[in-house]
Design brief:
187 residues; Glutaredoxin; alpha+beta; homodimer
């Protein structure tokens, strides 16, 4: 069995959401699984000096248009939520505090709540409505989340979505084309 | 005849170079011409707070890898030059000071000099070796260049390559996929 595709994302990332809707059938076509690895883009931005797409003059107008068009391109339901972006510490902790066999379903539910139904998943109570019984103040869960975010940054993850295939990094849903070819034969 | 594809780029942009090698057959397949519009990314960065890809912590390592891999993906010869990036005011003025029927050949020659042969096109004398007789201190040429750069920014151009098709903006060589579909039928 080949190694799974590492899929890094932030729960407030529109392109991360689009990727979440597409990555599983994509990986399966190539005989791969997917390791879902939510992280906190804010922690990476502290290192890189980056900031959310909608906070750049000029770029923000384009970004909003491109998010909506990209959703149509990939045939995924999408509505840019307000507020945007939101903090995703609670969502991230809920993921890592959830049993492994329920994490992927939770990730998709969180993303759809935010980008389809406009639920503010920056608010802990909204996260808990989807995650059910998980103690977000549990120290072990907080430590686990912190360790996962640090590990992601240690791997060089600075954006969302970010994929690593057998050690090769690909940033952005617009690298699916290159990933497709790479999975057939590295070039 | 349908309107040409507006193709904005900076002469120091690796992805702009890759696009320059690909845009003409791409446009021709869709019965379109190409309006080549070099601009100065530095002027846009002043507005957006952006900076060259290689100057972001974390992102820079990825960017260097991605440039080289993308060149292989698009089957275009490429070698990341040093120094990188370079100022492109002289290159941009040379383009706008050259007769229209020779501009595209000059643009390709400047790009290949920099990204294939490692010639520093930030230096005026190297630009003039390729551009031949053009007075880069001519006030009309300087004014024309300034006006073109301002017009680009006025259209919202903040990155390179940046395309506008019938009013619809596309940023990045990784938007060729969406442009391809858009040219068939806007979605």
């Amino acid at each position: 069995m080949k190694a799974p595709i590492d899929f890094y994302f932030d729960f407030s990332s529109p392109y991360g959401y689009l990727a979440a809707e597409k990555i599983e059938p994509f990986a399966a076509r190539h005989g791969r699984g997917v390791a879902w690895r939510p992280m906190l883009l804010g922690a990476a931005f502290k290192l890189t000096g980056g900031k959310p797409l909608t906070e750049w003059p000029l770029k923000s107008d384009y970004a909003k248009k491109d998010m909506v068009r990209s959703a149509r391109f990939y045939d995924v339901p999408f509505k840019l939520p307000a507020p945007f972006p939101v903090g995703t510490v609670s969502a991230c902790r809920a993921f890592y505090g959830t049993p492994k066999d329920k994490q992927v379903a939770l990730a998709k539910a969180l993303y759809r709540a935010y980008f389809v139904d406009g639920v503010n998943i920056g608010e802990t109570e909204n996260v808990l409505k989807l995650a059910g019984k998980v103690d977000l103040n549990d120290q072990a869960i907080k430590d686990r989340t912190k360790a996962e975010v640090e590990a992601a940054i240690g791997k060089g993850v600075f954006g969302s979505p970010y994929f690593i295939i057998d050690g090769e990094p690909f940033w952005g849903i617009d690298r699916f084309e290159q990933m497709e070819r790479w999975l057939g034969r590295p070039f």
